[in-house]
Amino acid sequence: MKLALIGFGQAGGKVVDEFLAFDDRIDGGFIESAVAVNSATTDLKGLEHVPRENRVLIGQARVKGHGVGADNELGAAVAEEDIDEIQGAIDSIPVHEIDAFLVVAGMGGGTGSGGAPVLAKHLKRIYTQPVYGLGILPGMDEGGIYTLNAARSFQTFVDEVDNLLVFDNDVWRSAGESVEGGYDRINREIVERFGLLFAAGEVEEGDHVAESVVDSSEIINTLSNGISTIGYASETVETNSGLLSSLTGGDDFDEGAATNRMTSLVRKAALGRLTLPCDVASADRGLVVATGPPSHLNRKGVERGRQWLEDETGSMEIRGGDYPIPHRDEVGAIVLLSGVTDVPRIDQLQQVAIEAQETTEEVRATAEEDFSSLMDTGGELDALF
Ligand code: GDP
Hints:
Layout: E1 3-8, H1 9-26, E2 31-38, H2 41-45, E3 55-57, H3 60-63, H4 72-81, H5 83-90, E4 100-106, H6 111-126, E5 131-137, H7 144-160, E6 163-168, H8 169-172, H9 179-200, H10 216-222, E7 227-236, H11 243-248, H12 255-271, E8 285-292, H13 299-313, E9 318-324, E10 330-338, H14 344-375
Parallel strand pairs: 1-2, 1-4, 2-3, 4-5, 5-6, 6-7, 8-9
Antiparallel strand pairs: 7-10, 8-10
Helix pairs in contact: 1-6, 1-9, 4-6, 6-7, 7-14, 12-13
The structure holds guanosine-5'-diphosphate.
């Protein structure tokens, strides 16, 4: 499906940048336009793929290009004040060509955390296309303020978008990795999953169209509301262009093995590491997409995987289809779970945030009292004026 991507804040901009590189690499064609919005000049300058004319600096009057720190209330305020500047960049998007907007942001910081929900609300008021969010949750070790920001932004963002796709940095970190190196790897993981899903709805006629290719309306129907998470599993396979098949004369592989492989890839995708871990049974809707070289996309395998997911979720709304990618040496399964409700990480985030909010209020009240008592001389000392 064709998307207009808008990256808000540093994480949002970097992930959109990575989406553009991925779309190019797989020749996906799922990005119609990409815009980056930030209150920090240096973050915008650091992007590589978002066109310069689509980089929007907001909040100049207040923060002079230095960013809002981790103040997401300020992030929301500058987004509201400069919404016309953002709209200016969106005006250059041929909106009639797109199937949906996707607003991407890290939820623990300031600019994206505060600004993304403001922009989503604005887009929904103006356009008829669905507006999706891709929200990135902070690691638990980032500290109370990031958790509090993320919990408050999450609460707001969910209400303003048609569906919030979630990625949790906390489950995707690796020990011993530098923060920067870690984000580069994590960003590639993000775009591979969400990128393959969106590219799936963008197969042109004549592009090895299988009968059961996923259509963008199936993605849109699966994303009708709530929160979503994605699982992905893949295996390297020998393609037609590979040495082995050219020696053996081509498409000579075991059909039964291909069915079993696809069925177990679907299970692995759903039961392995999800972008937001949750109880699979709590999903309201689902979509299974088989990706890879057309000859390996086994219909029976997808159908079995789809039925298995129906049993796991008890949902009658599990869709399935193919995304043929010729020349790829990997066969994979994407499982999109939508309308999930049993998500321990969100409960934990909210709990820690409520505690952080209470502690902040207590500390502030105590500090005010302590200051008053420090300055209290019982009226014996006169101030100058
Ligand atoms: P903003 O610029 O004020 O919106 O804030 P940032 O985007 O810099 O940071 C917000 C949160 O996003 C951080 O707390 C991190 O959890 C996360 N984050 C920052 N940079 C990246 C990145 O490149 N990739 C990912 N996955 N997360 C990031």
